[in-house]
Fold these 2 entries.
Entry 1:
Amino acid sequence: MLDVKALDRVHVQLEYSRKSRYGSVFLGSALDSGNVSELVVDTVLGRNDIEVTSNYYDACCTVESSAILNKKAMHSGVDPPVIIDLSNATWKEVGKACDNIFVWAFDEYEKVEGFVESVIRTNSDTKDKIILLIQRNKKTWKIAFSLYHIACPRGEEPYADEAFELLRQTLVHKRVEVLLETIDSDGYFMGALLESNTHVEIPLLKAGLAKLEPGPSYHVEFCRAQDSAITKKLKIWENNVEPYRNYN
């Protein structure tokens, strides 16, 4: 299976141009690393159908033949998973679907596993859109998610680009645990995400690229992360005069 996390580190080789430019993409930095085309090939054109072909055309044909022989993925004869896309749904539509994705028990939603497909910048003044895929009841639900109780720099604010990039690097193509708290008026599921048993908010707070929203009582780990950034006057706290709170 293709390791999508590795796609952040690729080598691109331009092979020919015909209206658009065509080439091959390799995982890693060397040409002897895995050819993405061979890993994800589905259908290929016969040589007589096109004037120019990739230098790796024959290798792709060999891999496709193997996939057909072994009945992999689209060649398996099994219907593809049903994906229900709620990523642009209304609050009402999301509310109706919520109980099919999350289970309410003992006054809170149970934790579920998900996969982060992408992180998208929005025009909102308060949040970015995290696209999650969650498998429940033999269906795959595609939802819009946003982190609850923290605020990152937005728009033209200082460090907005850096905060978004750290959020993207922390989450994209990662498997996460999803803790739902509520649904907002824009149809976003709101809550917390854990990656490798760590709340993804913590790296942002530690780096001085997010701050806790006023109001609720937070886990001490969140407060320590923010206070560390305040004490070191990192990023958004560089001109801050708030006192450091010691939780030891």
Entry 2:
Amino acid sequence: MLMMAEESSAYPQVSAPIDTGGLGFNYKWNMGWMNDTLKFFEQDPVYRHSDMNLLTFSFMYMYNEQFVLPFSHDEVVHGKKSLMHKMPGDRYNQFANLRTMYVWQATFPGKQLLFMGSEWGQFLEWRDWSELEWTDLKDPMNKKMQHFTTTLNHLYKARPSLWQQDHEPDGIKITIADEPDVLSYIRYGKQKDDFTVVAMNLVPVQKDHFRVPVPSPGTYEIILNTEDEAFGGTWTKWQQTLTAEIGENHDVPAWLDVILPAMGALLIKPKQLKPLPKKPLALKGKQPTKALPKHETPLSLAGHQRQPISHQDDWGTSPARSQPRDISKVNHQQSKKLGGKAHNAPQS
């Protein structure tokens, strides 16, 4: 038997054992994560870059309890709209947002709760006097959304790195949390080479030549692309095997050059790793930095403290999803303005 506390206060040790002063519940609903996540994804993407703290703040307390990440019936009733209906944009972009949000839920430390009907993107909110909108599954987009959720669940079950250390600090390393529109982190299992790289693009603009940090050089494989045509996206083929380049310091020992799909996410697994060079890695003219534990991030989690970037600077004048732009120059200008380094600067 499992006991779960649907509790929204900051009362400590709800899921800690009674003999250590806790309340003895197995899990506590992470209401803060749920509210912040929905508030973020309900926004028009043009405003998201100044509200990334809605996602990154949950990294600060993710190990305070043993959490459940709930998208429950409470969020899809009484005029709150279904999860699908909460998403911004046209129907295509609503599904793209929903797929990315489900990747965020599946890869964040904690256990998932998804209310029935949400797995295929039911448009109407739940009504206790009526059955689910099963007729939605006659629509190809809903059917593909159901296929995506099924695939994500099977992948989650097959990869211990996504759940084995949900409540251990060594279970995650945050690698990018100060970019205006991107989150990237690595989930670790108990085996040394068992890890999954997560990279999410939270705006509907494709990012070419984006550098995603990884722990080791070698070859990697993309195991999930939310923009796969089979899931309702537009991508029919892409480079599934990637080669990691040697990084510039211990914080980023290696990195992958990827194309981040517009309003999409990638899950990447190691295929054949190579050992790091024995010579300490360091930027030219600088001393090598001390390696950080897996659970610490080399990048600031305070990206929300930066000054908002204008819509014009961020997306330009034509943010059409059907015509992705090369935004490496734009990101370089943003980074220069914010005093940071562009992760997707053009490669030399």
